[in-house]
């Protein structure tokens, strides 16, 4: 099992001027510790999350600028959003952005994408927020546009919501045959159907519903005769492991126990939210105590698909 780092908060106490140096240190240390990827949220305001007290006014970084910054500070680690809201950027511009990240990083970019949900930041920044059904239509069209642009085909795309006169994308991505696509969300009627049809990976939330969601994904793959094993299964979860135990933290062995349970379900990679504010010592702890042991977890479900880059 691989472990990715989900960046959700930039609330260090030493002020905004220190965010850049901190992020560079964090992503460099994450690569050194063996994290498989760096996955920031794609939000413009801080968002509510579980029982944590998060204010919209907290610092939040634009995700693709952050990923480009992380690409310059690393050499190996994968780079993707968890996940881009489809309504935030025009599809042609979004795919050009991901392509640029892929080229400049040496072929390490993913397209992480979903239907979007946070109405406040749409309204706050003047971004249209279509109804949910329309956002899913736009999501499917965006996936089709991505595949056409990355194929090298230069021609029109005519959809219900998007019309592109020429899907020119030069340079093409370095990832072969294209950057991998991860779709976030567990909706059984729409999201998991899109995963089965278009994606290389899914991202689900940890919880009691997870086995059922995986079973539904298998059904969606069967419906189109796609091998379920082709899809990389990822899960987002909080693992507040810390050097000094408190009532809010867990021990490394507890984290590994949960990772083992996920591996047994066939999960290939976990995207972890670690103890915050995020410190270098926490990253080192994962590198010393958790990531090497997680790499030995293979589970008892289907053989996982490879996550290695060609």
Structure description:
- The structure is a single chain.
- The chain has 310 residues and is of the alpha/beta class.
- It has one domain (2-294): Luciferase-like domain (TIM Barrel), CATH 3.20.20.30.
- Helix content is 38%, strand content 15%.
- It contains nine helices and eleven strands.
- The chain has helices at 19-33, 63-73, 91-105, 119-125, 132-151, 191-198, 210-223, 252-264, 280-294, and strands at 2-7, 37-40, 78-79, 84-85, 110-114, 157-158, 163-164, 180-184, 201-205, 232-239, 269-274.
- Strands 3-2-1-11-10-9-8-5-4 form a nine-stranded parallel β-sheet. Strands 6-7 form a two-stranded antiparallel sheet.
- Helix 1 (19-33) links the parallel strand 1 and strand 2 (37-40).
- Helix 6 packs across helix 7.
- The chain is globular.
